[in-house]
Amino acid sequence: GGWRWQEKVEEATMEKIRAEGVSVKILMELSREEMVKELSLSEVQADALVATMKEEEERLTSVRTWSEEEVVEWLGSLGKEFAAYEDSFLFHNVNGDLLLDLTAEDLVDDLGVDKLGHRMQILDEIAYLKKICYKSARSSKGLARNQMNLPSFDEIENLKRQKAIRLQSNLDVLKHKVNQMRDAEAKAKLLARQAEAEAGKIQTQLRRLKTEPKEQGKNDKLNKRGVVRGWMEQCTFKPKLNPTSLEIVERTFGDSDIHRRFESQKATKEKKLKELQKMLSADDKTEAELREKYMKYFQEKLEWDTSSGVQESKVDSFLSNPAAYNVELTDKQIRHIRRLKGAPQYVAIYHACLISDFLQRNWLKAANEAKAKSENKQAATLKQPNKLDKYFIERFKWKEVNNGRLDDLLDNSKAYELELSEQQLAHFRNLEVSKKKHAIFQALQTQSFLMRNAADVRRREQAQLKAFEVPRPYSAVSGRGGRNVVRSFLERYHQDMETRQERKKALVDKVKKEDPNFKECTFRPNLHARSESPELAENFAEEQTA
Question: Which parts of the sequence are annotated with region: Disordered (predicted)?
């Protein structure tokens, strides 16, 4: 939920938002046109509201940098009933980073959020903050980067649905257990009432037996008491007896199982009560050590005179301008510290100073590490030449690559068989050193490719000429074996050339996309003209005559 953005929005705009029943989560998803159309806002109001929502989203995105007070303020924005947990969050130092890692067990065991509804609402709001942080991180890093390792929004929604189903099933199980416990409790109460009634009957019988005449005989009285005693010893039910029934049992049976169990429960409760009182009682030694620490800190770090205690004027000056002491406090924190008096106020100031010192040390440490990493990277870069420099140094035997050597290479481009026009040469000379280096590298690579292609064509041409020089055997049937062999070879050759031409065309298209200055080779071997040379024509005529 949001709480600061409402203070920045005009009252008229807020009335329209409340009338439509739109929450802050929906407002963050609406576009400017939807705000104008659905909320009946003017363009100025829509622009202001879009800017406010963008600031609110950026603030929610930076949840990991929230302080403990900002987390408590966020918790209070969820509703008035959540204000009861603010002290618990402050006591456990729950900041923004720790807030995103909270689980249901943490809320129950450590923070005291016993109500299921409150716990589920807090977990839902934490999940919403995680979703905003994930969305911001994904948009900043790009959709393509780490897309295989990151879950999609559909997967997140699917996980949320599965979580809701799992929680609903757990809730159903808990409801079933609660109903069973209620039934068991009702049965126990019924049995306890029955036991109390039986105990009353036994007491009446005992009273009547005491008043009966002795002439009935002692044997009858002992037999009746034996029946009652045997029934009580056989009973396995252990109800929570009231004082009257307990007194009857204790007076009648003395050290019984019920009496021993009751005494054990009483001793356990007294032990827990003493431990609780011991925890709540203040430790004089701990308070003295804490007072010694903050008095020493005030004297050494803040340069306060603490010989006669902490002066109120020093406290007022600290709270009036905490920035002078390199401490950042919000207005709410300052008001909270002003309400405190005596030792709690000094402890709060001491803790604020310690937190500020800790954050400053961490910031300086991170800055120094980043600076050292950058310096090491620059040093490594200076020591090792990049791939382009290595290419020029190995090919042209240079000691280093600089602008002068690149200009000399362009001046002598004909010597390296670089087919560049004057306009291209002038364009290359006006480029920066890094861009000029890259452009010359592309031109050299293109020229090398064309030279390799031309050499390959010449090599195949020579192989073809050698094939024509080899004597052709005549067919035993028709006498046209040589001509058929040549024709078959030419067909295979033309098919191979067509395949190579397609591969070359695909490669040229790829190079053109990467380098706009690429110049395609226009060399075409005149194979048909060579195949019609006098020697070949004479051989072909002899074969035809034969």
Answer: 524-546
